[in-house]
Design brief:
Layout (H helix, E strand, L loop, with lengths): L1 H7 L4 H40 L6 H20 L4 H15 L9 H27 L3 E3 L2 E3 L2 H32 L1 E8 L2 E10 L13 E5 H8 L10 E7 L2 E7 L4 E6 L2 E5 L2 E5 L9 E4 L5
Parallel strand pairs: 4-11, 5-10
Antiparallel strand pairs: 1-2, 3-4, 3-8, 5-11, 6-7, 8-9
Helix pairs in contact: 2-3, 2-5, 2-6, 3-4, 4-5
Length: 293
């Protein structure tokens, strides 16, 4: 097409410049379309692979990895790449997408395998659509669909990946809510409310009565009841084991204790043990599973 346009020029310098500008414009249009198309496809595939590998990604780095895949597709369009780079590209995109994701150290290998499998499944689907619409062709070793089915496939892949991402976020929030509770402690006419984490592996109980023991950050209790109120001469010494490790504290029995879990508030009976440990992430108390009524 560029050769035909060049032959139509009249040989003057202005005509050659016009033809050159037209060819560069076509390069930019085709390159931008290939970049956008592959970026959307890569985004959907990356989010799908992350869901299958049970990894929660940061959306910004997932988009960055998809954009790098789009750049690679544009480069491969005008300069074919060898099979080593094609084989390493999915794993490189996974490494980019997993930045600041708190994933296990070698989880990118599993995610890269899922990404290659999802890409192969998408390629098979594209081939089936090409046979169905009878408009596909092979260009440079890559099967190209007609414009309409390719656009539909691209949008469907990106939308499917985003839906999996949203559904994964909902499941994470639901799982967190299932093990997070709001605990209200009433003692000596004062009230203290803390965010508590229900530890399913914690079976800590007071040695004499057998009641469960909840550990609470000492600073939170001191702010609510006063530092002098926590000095208990008749407190019960309790050894505990939590997510942060073993410890020992002197527990006291509050006047009343309520636990609000999944929108319902129920009274509980448990000992409260002030500890110097800081749990972080908004958690101020760790309660054993036995505290649930």
């Amino acid at each position: 097409m560029a050769g035909c346009a060049a032959r139509r020029c009249d040989g003057r310098r202005g005509g050659h410049l016009l033809c050159f500008a037209w060819v560069m414009g076509m390069f930019e249009v085709i390159g931008e379309w290939v970049f956008l198309q592959n970026m959307l496809l890569n985004l959907g595939l990356i989010l799908t692979a992350a869901r299958l590998a049970r990894v929660r990604l940061r959306m910004g780095f997932a988009c960055l990895a998809a954009a790098w895949g789009g750049v690679y597709a544009v480069l491969a369009l005008y300069r074919p790449m060898g099979w080593p780079s094609q084989l390493a590209m999915p794993f490189l995109m996974c490494l980019i997408a997993l930045i600041k994701s708190r994933a296990p150290r070698f989880r990118w290998l599993a995610m890269g395998g899922w990404l290659m499998g999802a890409s192969a499944a998408l390629a098979g689907l594209a081939l089936m659509l090409g046979l169905l619409f009878e408009g596909g062709c092979w260009v440079g070793g890559v099967y190209q669909l007609p414009a309409l089915p390719m656009a539909l496939l691209t949008v469907a892949t990106a939308a499917g990946g985003i839906w999996l991402r949203v559904d994964q976020g909902r499941r994470v929030v639901a799982r967190q809510q299932a093990f997070h509770a709001r605990m209200t402690i009433l003692w000596h006419g004062r009230c203290c409310q803390v965010q508590a984490l229900i530890d399913t592996g914690n079976t800590m109980r007071e040695p004499l009565g057998g009641l469960p023991v909840a550990v609470v950050e000492r600073g939170v209790l001191a702010a609510a009841f006063g530092p002098q109120a926590l000095v208990q001469k008749h407190g019960r010494p309790v050894a505990f084991e939590t997510l942060t490790g073993p410890g020992q504290a002197r527990a006291f029995m509050p006047d009343a204790l309520f636990l609000r879990l999944q929108g319902r508030e129920k009274p509980c009976r448990a000992w409260i043990a002030p500890v110097d440990t800081r749990f972080g992430e908004g958690i101020r108390s760790v309660v054993p599973i036995g505290i649930l009524p």
